[in-house]
Design goal:
This protein has 242 residues and is an alpha+beta fold. The protein has a five-stranded mixed sheet with strand order 1-2-5-3-4.
Length: 242
């Protein structure tokens, strides 16, 4: 009887350890599947991130190529006029700058001088003809007005800043209103409404000389700046792939 009970107990103990062993084996299989699933997700995420980076790189390369193309087209069109207009084109920002304040506006005034009207009547229709070739790559064109930090001796720097803000905004609005009314740009008026903005910066972006002092004459300027849609396309890629 004792031998029977001992045998019975031994069988129960073996059965117990066998069930624990089966449980551990089952858990290991579960953990293995979880690990495989996590590795697969990580691999897919890595592939998705790599694909996203490749697409963004393509946009960046296309953006750079378009920048160069627009710049070259502007230079080709206006190279003969830059010196007589005292104008320049920045390759990196696609900013077309008119530097002679005495030609643009009377001091402290928003109304365009006759000389500036003649200049814009020549410049702007040709400018639009160039940009029309790249309209699918352009998000916005900004007419930007800049002033010096000066106003008069009786105003504080803060008062001068806001007076110049009003002046720079009024000037860019005058420019936009005038170029919009030119008969030669009538076919572009719809595009102008949706893509060209008039922005006044007051004295927030002064031009500095070699000694880091403000060049008051060069600070008073009007620029036309092309902004591409590359950042919007990159944002769309991130939203779609995210």
């Amino acid at each position: 009887m004792a031998d029977f009970l001992k045998s019975r107990a031994s069988e129960q103990e073996e059965t117990h350890w066998l069930s624990v062993s089966d449980l551990m084996a089952g858990l290991m299989v579960v953990f293995l599947f979880i690990a495989i699933a996590l590795m697969r997700d990580a691999l897919e995420e890595s592939r998705r991130a790599e694909y996203q980076r490749d697409r963004i790189k393509e946009v960046a390369v296309a953006y750079q190529e378009t920048q160069v193309d627009i710049y070259n087209a502007l230079v080709s069109e206006f190279s003969a006029d830059l010196q007589k207009w005292d104008a320049e084109i920045d390759k990196d920002t696609l900013t077309f700058t008119f530097n002679s304040p005495e030609v643009l506006f009377a001091q402290g005034k928003q109304e365009l001088k006759d000389e500036y009207r003649e200049l814009l009547a020549d410049f702007f229709p040709r400018y639009m003809d160039v940009l029309d070739q790249y309209r699918d790559s352009i998000n916005e064109v900004r007419i930007e007005g800049h002033t010096s930090s000066r106003w008069n001796n009786t105003t504080t720097p803060t008062e001068a800043y806001f007076l110049n803000m009003q002046l720079s905004q009024g000037r860019t609005r005058s420019v936009l209103e005038y170029v919009y009314s030119l008969a030669e740009v009538t076919p572009y008026q719809g595009w102008i409404k949706s893509h060209i903005a008039a922005v006044g910066f007051s004295s927030s972006k002064p031009v500095l000389d070699e000694y880091n002092n403000e060049d008051f004459g060069k600070s008073r300027r009007v620029t036309f700046r092309v902004i591409s849609n590359a950042d919007i396309r990159i944002k769309q890629i991130l939203e779609i792939d995210g």
